[in-house]
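From the shared-data thread, chain only:
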Amino acid sequence: MATNNPSVILWTSIWKAYRTIDEVLRKELDSVGLCQSDFSILELLAEEGPLMINLIGKHIVLTSGSITTAVDRLESKSFAKRVRSPKDRRVIEVEITPKGTKFLSEHLGSRNQAINDVTSCLNKKEKQDLVNSLDKLQQHALKESLAAA
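Structure, as tokens:
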């Protein structure tokens, strides 16, 4: 049954766009043996330095269980490792390894090019407008989620 509800149409459009773009970009990541969350964690660790798993989860927007599994995969490839924080030995942080840094530097260019290719139909202003709208939507959804809890 078709709907005329603009919110449902918007959600369906976001979902379809995400699924289609994800499929295109997943091919790029599959070729290097990682998934999106793994690659995002490597990028985050390269930018921010060592982080606790819960902080990684907040940046990547995944549960701690999903982040733990992703970190396990990155550790199995020697791209990241868990280390004790020098500030508080009770705290375990995740850091990118030299092998992970090398991997990221070798594949970031092609990954960024794939993203550029898939978004090339939008001009700079359209991209910024879309980012602003999606950020606004995400913040509102987060507030709704917290209010319902």
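The beta strands are 51-52, 80-84, 92-96.
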